Amino acid sequence: MKFLHKILEKQRPLFEKGGKYEKFFYLFEAGETFMFTPPTTTQSKGVQVRDAIDLKRLMMTVVIAMVPCLIFGIWNVGHQHALAFGKTMTFMDKFLFGAWYVVPMIIVSYAAGGLVEVVFALIRKHPINEGFLVTGMLVPLICPVTIPLWQIGLANIFAIVLAKEVFGGTGMNVLNVAMTARAFLYFAYPSQISGDVWTANETGNVISLGTQGLVDGYSGATALSVAASAGTAKAEILQAFANSWSPDLFSFWNLFWGAIPGCVGETSTLMALIGAAILVLTGVGSGRIIVSVFVGAYFMGWVFNLLSANTFAQMPPHYHLVVGGLAFGAVFMATDPVSASHTATGKWIYGFLIGVLTVIIRVVNPAYPEGIMLAVLLMNVFAPLIDHYVVEANKKRRERRLVSREAI
After folding, report:
1. pTM of the model
2. End of a domain among 186, 209, 232?
């Protein structure tokens, strides 16, 4: 590998200032950084702090944390296909079937996002940011498997340009980029990303579950859709879950495990929690935000149980933690270090309100059953305000302590 790196380094003068390909320097640097560690060191003569973390390693840690959700999601695509068509498939058969559909989604996502990054790097003459490594993985994981590939590419371009680059690039975005892509798809192409779950047969034709020769009784609804259309009593909702076409499909533990219809990577709470452990242990993700999102969702579910008889308001609070994309959103969206709150107290408030708003949106307006999307985007906007008031409160407490000491 050192031999290849030396060959690459010999080409560097062609891309540096005054070289033949000077305008492509940042493209060259991005390729070298991705494949090797550049042979550059800081020239500062002051005090140095050595740390193994940088933006590339931080983003790669997030990608690694998403791998459990990705692997499980690929398998689940094949598993849901087998259930829908009444087929017997081995673990590997399911995995390979899922990979046939999921891998192209990832390739298109990275290609579209990478293209935008390259264009803006060349125009603005700045290094290519590694942020698209995370966004390129997140967007396919929060989409249904049969969404048209061109929509994934379009959503990436839209989100990176309007949610990140117009604000100055990585580290400057106000909104979570992947959630912005999801919102764009939800409102621009609702039939492909909302409503009943869709699957695909071996020929690649998209077929709605519950039609065209599929197993009898399969409605194609997600757990949130079942709850929204069940009834107003807790017993009715649980009975609707129990009466699903497959035994225990929507039992609490199966919802926690994630072998249910849904978007590629967000069905498994267990896999999301494994990713959360990786992020928290490496110091990349905030455990305060993750925990407070779950606490907020449970609290609001409990409040609705006490006060409301609205559609699926009586769903047991702990079910809110495992249905929809709450866990995935709490771990990978709410913890975005740029668009989330930065103060310690602010993180508790920010995460708690995301959980509360998620359940409110689900219950009050079933037209938006996946409340985590709108909750995260809304709290992204209010995160700076939360931090502002937390800082102001800290200042006032310090002022009172100083006054007390002077009085003594």
Report:
1. 0.81
2. 209
